[in-house]
Write a structure and sequence with these properties.
about 230 residues, alpha/beta, SAM-dependent_MTases_sf, Methyltransf_25, Methyltransferase domain-containing protein
């Protein structure tokens, strides 16, 4: 996001921000975020440096900072609105929780060998060109570090995931309410695996998290990969 780009996340999460200021007791990786595996997928975070890519209001990052004893969790998001909400909700958790407004790729390039674990819950991995993001993530991870992310297994309208590295355009709104679109990368499992391999990751695994019932449910992919030692 540049200074001249509209913040397409301006409206996201505002209702919850006004009514729920708690640190979550848990979080989940499936699309509905109500089932399947939880934070244990990240492993033991005691004493580690962790980064949330596309953290939004930093609720997942706040949970980890409070309940999992990392040395630091860095919640990174390019959206001014999301950064402001995160700071309002959880700024008091500093220094263990650090809330950063930044383009994720730029932040990762600036922090070579900084992180032990990077993760994204339908966050920046979904909304950033993966051929830029994944190599940057490998650069920012220490040798043997782990990247974990959940991403859509197919589009919310039911159309299949892309068989190559192409984005889809999804509806969005500018801060003043004007209709527009944003890019989202909804890719088939083998495409993610190939991209991760090319970016220098090994021990790549993908689990399918089935969606629930309803018109806008979706299967999710839970992807884990390690930076080469």
């Amino acid at each position: 996001m540049t200074p001249h780009t509209a913040d397409l996340w301006h409206h996201y999460g505002r209702t919850r921000h006004a009514t729920d200021r708690t640190v979550p007791d848990d979080f989940r990786w499936n699309w509905e975020q109500d089932g399947g595996p939880g934070p244990e997928v990240l492993g033991d975070l005691t004493g580690l440096c962790v980064g949330d890519l596309g953290a939004g209001a930093a609720r997942h990052a706040a949970h980890l900072a409070v309940h999992h004893r990392p040395v630091r969790v860095v919640a990174i998001d390019a959206s001014p609105a999301q950064h402001a909400m995160a700071t309002d909700l959880y700024g008091h958790l500093a220094p263990r929780l650090r809330i950063v407004r930044s383009d994720v790729v730029s932040h990762l390039h600036a922090g070579r060998d900084t992180y032990d674990v990077l993760y994204s819950v339908f966050g920046a991995v979904d909304f950033t060109e993966p051929r830029a993001l994944l190599p940057a993530a490998a650069t920012a991870l220490r040798a043997g570090g782990r990247l974990v992310f959940s991403t859509l297994g197919h589009c919310l309208d039911g159309s299949p995931a892309q068989p190559d590295v192409r984005h889809v355009d999804i509806p969005a709104r500018t801060p003043d309410g004007e209709a527009t679109t944003m890019r989202r990368w909804v890719l088939q499992e083998q495409v993610w695996v190939k991209l991760l391999d090319e970016a220098g990751f090994t021990r790549i695994s993908v689990d399918v998290l089935p969606g629930g019932e309803g018109p806008r449910t979706a299967d999710a992919l839970l992807v884990t990969a390690y930076r080469s030692s």
